[in-house]
Design brief:
Largest sheet: 5 strands, antiparallel
CATH architecture of the largest domain: 2-Layer Sandwich
Helix content: 40-55%
CATH topology of the largest domain: Beta-Lactamase
Structural class: alpha/beta
Distance between the termini: 172 Å
Shape: elongated
Number of domains: 5
CATH superfamily of the largest domain: GAF domain
Number of helices: 25
Radius of gyration: 52 Å
Strand content: 15-25%
Length: 672
């Protein structure tokens, strides 16, 4: 037989010059043309190439999911076909055989081709074949006998069908080769069904993987949340509990599932009330008594219903109230940032103060900080907190002088929902509860109303509070530091502060020295504040000797706070200047220099009186009567002044002038 385009056209019964549609002939003819252009000899070509062991192993690994799904399907298809002279194979998109099942020996006897994994079935290798036509057309294809370009395959009938993914892209091809047969509807059906079965298997596997991934993701989310999560069915049986929930409830997760919730926890589970009443709750606080003591939770219960609205379970999310308060304290800044190293100074009062603070931090005693405004009482309180074993706990400060009298109790002890008009839903914790496990600073405690002092004393003695509008006793554990700029003992004497509370607070007393008593620390503090301004402005400034002298001579009624504000004031006024001069300092400090200069240039009243008397005595040449008249005072008064100021003079007795010399270092003889 002559293999050329003309003979092919005659055998297939169609014309070369154009087609009315893209039928099988169109793809076959184009494949023949490509084979001829490639120089493939139809008589001697057609022997395929093969991958080595390592190469085929890599391809099998790359297509492992496709191979695992297709292999049992192809074996079952071959069994159902009940034909000994056929081979079913799975090819990847590059034309390499991945799986072979069937009578490969029969194929070899007729074609001399060894059908094994790794064989390449591309058009460039074996000419026109079913695989190449499927890849060209994107649909199932069948050819038989002389429709193959190479004579080697004229004894084979071949059917193939593509395997596509969910995007419609071909990921593999199922091929059936039969010896001495013709393409039949049966063979076309087998490869078509096999390809569809493989596609379905891949889709199912992907769905399972997606479901598995979703389940793992949901499990990871549930396990990663910091809250406890508990799910019970309509009968109160635990169906799920995350690790944090088990930790909070002090149970083992594996021992909970399948048990009634009442048998799991050692307190009365409130979630059962949600089942009973079919009413959920959101962020509701509960205080429960257990064998481990009082447990305090914030809980949310979500009811689960089926499609018919029937309640079939509850999901409860819960967290410990102490953890909420810790986060709240962090958000509102209830954290001490200063340490003992931040208390600058080398003077004896400061060194002693730091020593006392360090000793105090090691104990749990109540501390009384006394000092003028601006001496750093809150800084010292934070340093004591950070030096104590409570440093990881909250540091809560409240200014007793800044809170209205009617709100003082609710601020300190909190309130329950509905306690008064405007009370928040769910109530609110007070400063004592917020400081649980940490330190509470009561600043300006001297301003606390007298009736509140009684309640504060009771809390300090019992370590328990009752919220406003509530009846439940709440245990609190907070170290108390109080601060004042007034003399509490004097207030006790005046009846303005309770004596018993004073003794309860004054367990450890630390006096903060005013800045005027430690002027040697002023240069150190000035440099510290200059560097602080430099971190903000990006430029470190110097201070002139004249400006430093003024700062050293100022009495600092506002203490360290005033000094810091003065340096910041000077840095702002100096703008781009590298040195702070006198004119950059606050006006009150500059005015103090003017007062000092005026004092140097002005006489006191006594000095002026003395100078006037000396001047008149000199003019009258020691005549006391004349001098008294000129000065407008009596002679006896003048004699007293002369004696007081030790002024020497001459007076006349019996016509003879005598000298009255009172020791006066600067006196000069007044001649007649």
């Amino acid at each position: 037989m002559t293999f050329n385009y003309t003979s092919l056209n005659v055998q297939m019964g169609f014309q070369r010059d154009g087609f009315s549609h893209f039928g099988d002939e169109y793809y076959i003819l184009n494949s023949w043309r490509r084979c001829q252009e490639l120089g493939i000899d139809p008589y001697i070509s057609g022997q395929p190439t093969y991958l080595n062991y390592e190469q085929i192993s890599r391809r099998l690994k790359a297509n492992i999911n496709l191979v695992n799904i297709a292999e049992p399907i192809l074996k079952e298809a071959y069994r159902l076909a009940a034909h000994h002279k056929l081979v079913l194979s799975l090819l990847d998109v590059d034309g390499y055989i991945l799986i072979v099942t069937g009578d490969a020996e029969a194929i070899y006897q007729y074609t001399g081709v060894n059908y094994v994994p790794g064989m390449h079935c591309g058009e460039k290798t074996i000419g026109t074949n079913c695989f190449s036509l499927v890849m060209q057309s994107g649909r199932p294809f069948s050819i038989a006998g002389m429709e193959h370009y190479c004579q080697r395959y004229h004894y084979v009938a071949c059917s193939a069908a593509p395997i596509k993914n969910e995007s419609g892209n071909i990921i593999g091809v199922v091929v059936m080769d039969e010896i001495e047969g013709e393409v039949s509807n049966c063979s076309q059906g087998v490869v078509g069904v096999a390809a569809k079965a493989i596609e379905t298997g891949i889709q199912m596997q992907m769905a399972q993987e997606q479901m598995s991934f979703t389940n793992r993701l949901q499990s990871m989310i549930v396990e990663s949340i910091s809250d406890g999560l508990l799910k019970i069915d309509a009968h109160g049986i635990v169906t799920h509990m995350n690790a944090n929930g088990a930790r909070i409830l002090n149970v083992m997760t594996r021992n909970c599932i399948g048990k009634h919730i009442s048998d799991v926890v050692d307190f009365e589970p409130v979630v059962l009330n949600a089942l009973k009443t079919e009413q959920g709750y959101v962020d509701k606080e509960f205080r429960l008594e257990s064998k481990r003591g009082e447990l305090n939770f914030v809980k949310t219960a979500i009811l689960l219903r089926d499609d018919h609205g029937q309640l079939n379970g509850v999901v409860e999310i819960f967290r410990e109230i102490k953890r909420i308060r810790k986060k709240t304290n962090q958000m509102i800044g209830a954290k001490a940032i200063f340490t003992l190293d931040d208390i600058l100074g080398e003077s004896a009062p400061i060194v002693n103060m730091r020593r006392l603070a360090k000793l105090t931090a090691a104990s749990e005693t109540t501390v009384l900080l006394e000092g003028e405004s601006g001496t750093g009482k809150e800084l010292l309180a934070q340093a004591i907190h950070n030096c104590s074993y409570r440093s990881e706990g909250p540091f809560v400060a409240i200014n007793c002088g800044a809170i209205p009298r009617e709100l003082m109790e609710s601020e300190l002890f909190g309130y329950e929902e509905g306690a008064f008009t405007g009370a928040k839903n769910g109530g609110r914790a007070g400063k004592f509860e917020m400081a649980h496990g940490g330190t509470l600073l009561l600043d300006e405690v001297s301003e606390m109303p007298f009736d509140m002092q009684v309640k504060l004393l009771r809390v300090l003695q019992q370590n328990q509070i009752i919220r406003v509008g509530g009846s439940q006793v709440v245990s609190v554990d907070a170290r108390i530091i109080v601060a004042t700029n007034r003399n509490l003992w004097q207030m006790v004497q005046e009846g303005k502060f309770r004596e018993d509370l004073y003794y309860r607070l004054n367990v450890m007393d630390i006096l903060l020295p005013p800045l005027r008593d430690r002027t040697g620390d002023v240069p150190l503090l000035i440099q510290h504040f200059l560097h602080k301004c430099a971190r903000r402005d990006g430029r470190l400034k110097n201070i002139s000797p004249a400006a430093m002298k003024l700062l050293m001579n100022w009495h600092w009624p506002g203490n360290v706070r005033e000094l810091e504000n003065s340096i910041e004031h000077a840095c702002c006024l100096s703008e781009n200047d590298a040195t702070i001069e006198v004119e950059h300092l606050p006006r009150n400090i500059q005015n103090n220099e003017c007062v000092n200069r005026l004092a140097e240039q002005t006489m006191s009243l006594k000095e002026a009186e003395r100078a006037a008397i000396e001047n008149v005595i000199q003019i009258t040449q020691g005549n006391v009567s004349q001098s008294a008249k000129l000065l407008g005072i009596g002679r006896n008064t003048l004699y007293e002044k002369l004696k007081e100021y030790s002024i020497s003079y001459k007076f006349s007795v019996g016509g003879v002038r005598k000298s009255n010399c009172v020791s006066y270092s600067n006196s000069s003889e007044i001649s007649t």
